[in-house]
Amino acid sequence: EALRLALAIGGVEFEDKRVPFPAWRKIKPTTPWGTLPVLELADGSQLAQARSILRYIGRHTGLYPADPLAAQRVDELMDALEDLAATITSVGQGLPKEEQEAARLTAVSEGGAIYDALANIDAFIEANGQGGYAIGSEMNIASILMFTTLGRLVGGVFYGVPPTVIDPFPNIMAVRKTVGSNSAVAEWYSARIEQISLTSLSLAEQVLVSWAETTCDD
């Protein structure tokens, strides 16, 4: 989803092809690494691996800093977001659903592993971001990736993680609001809802839609 939003914010027209699960077995061998997403360029060549594609889009749209230090900070935060996702997935892994939910609820409480990871991210934004942006004072792919990662975090993808999990972190909340209030993001989700009904979207995407609508109404 971060790739789509980066293209939309960057003003790049693209065809959004979503692969239904039954069709994946046939398509998988045609992809560079047997994974999605894949970005197909105008000449038919394919780019793969999500973070690599996101940086490519960022470089071509001005959403990835030219300054090496600023670029490193963007990469650092994106790696931290990957670590956060890995931490969430690992908590309670292999346990029955009820026990997994209980373990994750403990992890998102103060002093828990997920809470601490979010606190570190919030402090990093405090030190490196400005005006509701994760890094620097302009929109870049780190803010976009944070927006979509948070949507998955609170969107019911992970059992036991409540939708209020990010509320204690003001800098994270500010980034969420800044990206959600971007006009290109609002237009993207408005068009998406026109294409298919809101209830047909994934839970995470429904959260992102609600954030875009809420922040644009503020």
TrEMBL record:
Coiled coil: none annotated. Gene3D superfamilies: 1.20.1050.10, Glutaredoxin. PROSITE patterns: GST_CTER (PS50405), GST_NTER (PS50404). One of its GO terms (molecular function) is glutathione transferase activity. One of its GO terms (biological process) is glutathione metabolic process. Residues 67-199 form the GST C-terminal domain. Residues 1-65 form the GST N-terminal domain. InterPro entries: Glutathione-S-Trfase_C-like (IPR010987), Glutathione-S-Trfase_C_sf (IPR036282), Glutathione_S-Trfase (IPR040079), Glutathione_S-Trfase_N (IPR004045), GST_C (IPR004046), GST_superfamily (IPR050213), Thioredoxin-like_sf (IPR036249). This is Glutathione transferase. It comes from Haptolina ericina. The lineage of its organism: Eukaryota, Haptista, Haptophyta, Prymnesiophyceae, Prymnesiales.
